[in-house]
Amino acid sequence: MSASQYLRQLEAKRRQRVDADKKASDSRTKEAEKRAAASKAAASASRSNSAAMIASYMRTAARRESEANDAGKQAASWQGRAARYAKDEASLQAKLANAEQQERDGAERRRTRDQQAADRRAAAERASFHQRLDLAETLVITALRDLGAPKPEKLRILMLAASSEGDLRVGREQKRIRRAVESALHRDLVELDVRPSATADDLLDGISRFRPHIVHFSGHSNDDLIVLENEIDQPHTGVVVSAGAFANAVAATDTPPLLVVLNSCKSASQIDALVDRVAPFAIGMSDEIGDGDAITYAAQFYAAVANGQSIQSAHLLGRAALELVGLAGQDLPTLAHAADVDPSQTVLVVPPK
What we know:
353 residues; alpha/beta; three-stranded antiparallel sheet
């Protein structure tokens, strides 16, 4: 829930508490007035010499005492409500503070990502400038890398999933991706090699034998490592693979992939190195990402790829899918690319004419 929603709830609860406090105070005032009236009637009865007047005064005193008791009960009831409202108010205040902190943290993460993107653009512009200086005697027209038209073959996607401790829904992600591809416009032009419980051997075998155009990993990672599985049946801690070792394995082929997708926490720190050494395009997550966010992004991304959308459009559609269903991770998926390629012009699935 957003901070503004918590703030509205807090203001409403505060109004309820203030109203309950006022009603409790009014009831206590009424109780005091009725008890004073009862005492006055009793005093009048004690001074009277008439039996009829004494009886009348005593009845009045009894009524006022009963009214005072009713007012006291109402005061106690409103005081109880006010105490509950105050407790709810304190809880909402804590939730509001937490939501505001999360929103500040989110804004800071977005600012950091924007700054990193700006730094990458600046670095690319500097590199381009120095290249032009080196070739100053020649008129140079800088062109995008010619990735070539897609060959008359299926787009091959190697899907590696690892959750050795069983705490991630990687099987659900692979199922959603397969369903998304099978429902797409060009489903017959996409081939999946699905490796659940992926080990280092699965990675090497998939790279050399399947020769994928896309390598997709889902599982645990951080800034400089990913976690694969061991070839054992029981839950275990997994096999930690450095980002460099993973990149070397993916690059160790005569036909390196065009795209590497790391659908795992804090993996965006690895994608610049992948773009420099392995593939012209790479996608990673800039922070921790929940299972549901990762699954939704991946399913929509590959549905768009299989529908003939560019890499850039597929990436934006994946992020839009997160935002449309109200998930919080729409800013986490990050696309990086080499300076001499254009993700908005690169389409991985093109049907034959």
